[in-house]
Write a structure and sequence with these properties.
The complex is a heterodimer of chains A (about 350) and B (about 300). Chain A is mainly alpha-helical. Chain A contains 13 helices and four strands. Chain A folds into two domains: about 230 residues, no CATH class; about 80 residues, abc type-2 transporter like fold (3-Layer(aba) Sandwich), CATH 3.40.1710.10. With about 300 residues, chain B is of the alpha/beta class. The longest helix of chain B has 16 residues. The chains are: A mainly alpha (about 350), B alpha/beta (about 300). At the A-B interface, α1 and α7 of A face α2 and α3 of B.
């Protein structure tokens, strides 16, 4: 079994493309998404003042506000910019002052409030109630903090299913499975060797992704590393079981590819990898929560963001383990050895 | 017996292979050789019938594994893992057995020592086949199953494999092989069974089978004018020293007892009739001729 697992690993790392898709791709993805969503808070708002009486004074007033970038433009250009979304709001000077904006855009709504506030104050409006802002940045509230655990979960799913599925079907297609059957090798050893070799890759995957998030974006692991390791091991075993199930009957690479997509695509979308699954209708939530990737992502986020202890993660971990155990047992029963 | 859907691949056959012997299953593609050998190897369950190997029957679990410890098996279509090296593949197969040759020993058996660090994907066809046989030999088997070990190989690689098989037998091993090369069977096997359409149509030592033709030479000839006249065939049948005449699309084939009498007589006859030869060859009768005599078909055409 040790020999089988070692062979599996050798076959893997001698396949440079596979190495990239498993290790490189999630990191590239995290990098790109991390950059795109660097600032979670609203940035500066671009507004325009159309030509008219007192336009340059108005633009200067608005521009002096720290949240606004205002410029004067002729009406036609300004309208075009508004239509193409390059500015959030167009101010047309006069009496009354006209705010032209798309009320369905969040940015435009914010710009309207901000512009109106600056304008009214500059004309002498006084605040009637004294207020004080108490700004808090919750730890781990950035998008990248949300994303890294999701990518980790997705990566465990992908490498489990791809790694196991393709090698099994390839061995079957090349009649290598049949050749193994002609030796005294135990069948369970063959299947377990996949799970064992997954364990080794898992360590590399987790270190690569978590280390990357920490170095570049300062994504910290708030819970204990032991808990994180435990959860990823459980998840990885479970997905290897799922991978075996997917590959248990398929005879061709094309056939198994289709099955893999059928299994993985819904989970990528539903399981809260890139955005929270709470956006789905309430009726769907119980089903979404029953998916293994959802459960794993929840557990990973609980550890990495909230610093949760193992004891509080019973339910999601039970879901993950159940999926893995059930699929492994079914895979063993229905596996096509020839 | 074994059926695949409506197709009966193997329809009842009886074989006994004795210890220390090399037994060949011969026949064209699709004759049922592979199905037969895989039933014997315990890889394909038969629909009916009994198999006894080394005094045991195929069972699941520990008894089956104990039997596998004593066998060496090479399958027809196995492609070993491309990315592993020769010695890694052998190390892997070695790990399946309780008792086995070391990697170096088995490399020496199949003369692949220089390739030990080479990845499987870089090997030639003959080297891959020797590696496949090495995987079968690594367990120090008592009984070796080889399914078309030399199909598609060049003559030199084929001879190397024959040499490997001879050495294995010299150490007291028993071999059961399939082939569609009659020449291979004649050279390697003590006994052969000729299969066609899932049945054994002849069985015996190569010598016995060839002797059953009743003649030891075959003369093939063709005429420039193409088809041969019916009456000429009749005359040939009556000719001294000729035991059988067979006409085919490519020409005429005579099975001949005494070549030194039959050949001049044939040439004289053709000259007398004023027909010209476009081809004339003679060879010692072989198992190929036995197959043609039994089925009326050429082995290679099928």
């Amino acid at each position: 079994m040790y020999q089988l697992a070692v062979s599996r690993m050798r076959e893997f790392y001698r396949e440079p493309e596979a190495v990239f898709w498993v290790f490189g791709f999630p990191i590239v993805l995290a990098f790109a998404l991390g950059l795109a969503f660097r600032n979670t808070g609203p940035g500066n708002l671009q507004v325009c003042v159309a030509g008219g009486p007192g336009d340059s004074a108005l633009a200067a007033t608005l521009d002096s506000s720290p949240r606004l970038i205002a410029s004067g433009l002729d009406t036609a250009t300004a309208r075009l910019r508004l239509r193409t979304g390059r500015i959030a709001l167009l101010v047309i000077p006069g009496d009354p002052v006209v705010y032209r904006y798309d009320s369905t855009r969040t940015e435009s709504g914010l710009a309207r409030l901000q512009v109106d506030d600056v304008l009214q104050r500059s004309r002498g409006r006084k605040d009637l109630v004294t207020v004080r802002d108490d700004r808090a940045v919750a730890p781990g509230s950035r998008y990248i903090d949300f994303l890294i655990p999701g990518l980790l979960g997705m990566n465990l799913l992908g490498s489990g299913i791809w790694g196991v599925g393709f090698s099994v079907v390839q061995a079957r297609q090349r009649k290598l499975l049949k050749r193994y059957m002609a030796t005294p090798m135990r069948r369970s050893h063959y299947l377990l060797s996949f799970i064992l070799s997954r364990l080794v890759f898992l360590i590399v995957e987790v270190i690569a992704l978590v280390g990357f998030g920490w170095l570049l974006f300062g994504v910290a692991v708030r819970g204990s590393f032991a808990t994180l390791a435990g959860i990823t091991i459980v998840g990885s075993f479970s997905f290897a079981g799922l991978g075996l199930l997917v590959a248990s009957r398929a005879k061709t690479i094309e056939g198994v590819s289709g099955l893999m997509n059928l299994v993985m695509l819904p989970m990528w979308i539903l399981s809260g990898t890139f955005f929270s699954y709470s956006r789905f209708p309430d009726a769907m939530i119980p089903f979404v929560k029953a998916l293994p990737l959802t459960a794993l992502n929840d557990a990973l986020r609980a550890v990495m963001i909230d610093g949760a202890a193992v004891a509080t993660l019973g339910t999601p971990l039970a879901v993950v383990v159940a999926w893995g155990a059930v699929s492994f047992v079914i895979a063993l029963k229905i596996f096509r050895w020839r | 017996m074994k059926r695949f859907g409506d197709v009966v691949a193997v329809a009842g056959l009886d074989l006994t292979v004795s210890a220390g012997e090399c037994f060949g299953l011969l026949g064209p593609n699709g004759a049922g050789k592979t199905t037969t050998i895989e039933i014997l190897e315990g890889l394909t369950p038969p629909d009916s019938g009994d198999v006894e190997i080394l005094g045991m029957r195929w069972q699941d679990g520990a008894p089956g594994r104990a039997l596998r410890e004593r066998l060496g098996i090479q399958l027809q279509e196995t492609q070993l893992a491309d990315k592993l090296t020769v010695s890694e593949v052998l190390g892997l197969f070695r790990s399946f057995y309780r008792q086995s040759h070391t990697v170096e020993e088995v490399l020496a058996l199949v003369e692949l020592e220089e390739k030990r660090k080479a990845r499987v994907v870089t090997l030639s066809g003959g080297q891959k086949q020797r590696l496949a046989v090495a995987c079968a030999l690594v367990s120090k088997p008592e009984l070796l199953f080889l399914d078309e070990p030399t199909t598609g190989l060049d003559p030199q690689s084929r001879r190397q494999l024959w040499e490997i098989i001879r050495r294995f037998r010299a150490d007291g091993g028993t071999v059961l092989l399939t082939t569609h090369y009659m020449e291979e069977a004649e050279r390697l096997c003590d006994r052969v069974a000729i299969m066609d359409h899932g049945k054994i149509i002849a069985q015996g030592t190569p010598k016995e089978l060839i002797a059953s033709l009743g003649a030891d030479h075959v003369v093939d000839f063709a005429l420039t004018e193409g088809r041969i006249a019916k009456d000429l065939v009749e005359i040939l049948r009556q000719m001294g020293g000729v035991s059988a005449v067979r006409t085919g699309p490519d020409g005429v084939s005579l099975t001949v007892v005494e070549l030194h009498r039959a050949l001049p007589a044939l040439l004289a006859l053709l000259k007398e009739r004023g027909v010209e030869l476009s081809l004339l060859t003679t060879h010692h009768a072989s198992l190929d001729d036995v197959f043609v005599a039994l089925t009326g078909r050429q082995l290679r055409d099928t």
